[in-house]
Specification:
By secondary structure, this protein is of the alpha/beta class. It folds into two domains: 29-119 and 216-249, 3-Layer(aba) Sandwich (D-Maltodextrin-Binding Protein, domain 2), CATH 3.40.190.10; 120-214, D-Maltodextrin-Binding Protein, domain 2. It has helices at 3-15, 55-67, 78-87, 103-106, 153-157, 169-177, 188-198, 226-238, 240-249, and strands at residues 29-36, 45-46, 52-53, 69-76, 93-97, 112-113, 118-126, 140-144, 162-166, 183-187, 206-207, 214-222. Keywords: Signal.
């Protein structure tokens, strides 16, 4: 072997790091997911120790396991969550999200959105004896801070309906049960769960489909990781049997077909 070849061989050996030739495990990618610090079980919620729970947690964790990712959930009040995600941009992902929510904050930002994780039916729950009354009979409406009851916006703007806000839905539902609020604008599954399990008043308030209501598609979003959002959308399409099992686990109602005039 010539001296030139010997030197090249030596250089190659010196350039190889210790352990080269052995397959090294790829470190797991850890991402932050900003979530609502909100009592919205069974869809999603935070417990007394600030742990994120519910249907969305199970779906996101199942995806992360398949991909070898680790999701670190960061519960924040809704308004603070928007600021952390869209203004400060200190979070990798936000859930739930929708391109129509807080459009004034999104501006020209390029946000990637996943396929729909779950569709939420939101509307007014009222005392059973008041079910079927016209919109003109609703003068007070409760909802949580950060929520916008879009179907009622024109009545709110005209001062026909006064809005009461709170950080928690259980307190609003208690006020409606006591007749202190005409209605609470809330997801139907969430209201039924709280009434039965937290307030011990199953059926004490009922969803009134005759009043304005809407459906919201909950998605995962990101400003930084378009490729991960695309992977998550593929997961949602591929794992439909798993999603159906999780819907059954959390007793999520199947949505009725939209009525004429409602979206």
């Amino acid at each position: 072997m010539t001296m030139r070849k010997l030197l090249l061989a030596a250089a190659c050996c010196l350039a190889l790091p210790a352990g080269a030739g052995r397959a090294e495990p790829v470190p797991a990618r850890t991402y932050t997911v900003g979530v609502e610090n909100l009592q919205y079980f069974p869809l999603h919620s935070t417990d007394a120790h600030n742990n994120y729970t519910g249907y969305a947690r199970d779906v996101l964790d199942a995806f992360a396991r398949q991909q070898g990712y680790t999701f670190r959930y960061v519960p924040l009040p809704i308004n603070r969550l928007y600021a952390a995600f869209l203004k400060e941009q200190i979070l990798d992902f936000k859930y739930p999200d929708h391109p129509k929510w807080r459009e004034e904050l999104r501006g020209s930002l390029k946000v990637s959105y996943s396929d729909v994780v779950v569709t939420s039916e939101e509307g007014a729950v009222v005392l059973p004896q008041n079910k079927g009354r016209p919109l003109s009979a609703i003068h007070s409406l409760g909802t949580v801070l950060g929520f916008t009851p879009w179907p009622y916006q024109s009545a709110i703007d005209s001062k026909a309906i006064a809005v009461t806000t709170s950080s928690r839905f259980d307190g609003l539902l208690r006020r409606a049960l006591a007749g202190q609020l005409d209605a609470v604008y809330v997801n139907v599954d969430v209201a039924n769960y709280l009434l039965e399990n937290e307030l011990k008043a199953p059926g004490g308030l009922q969803f009134d489909p005759a009043l304005p209501h809407a459906r919201s598609d909950f998605r995962l979003s990101s400003l930084r990781h378009e490729e991960v959002v695309a992977q998550f959308s593929q997961f949602l399409q591929r794992e439909r049997p798993l999603l159906q099992q999780l819907r059954a686990k959390y007793k999520l109602a199947e949505l009725r077909p939209p009525e004429p005039g409602n979206r």
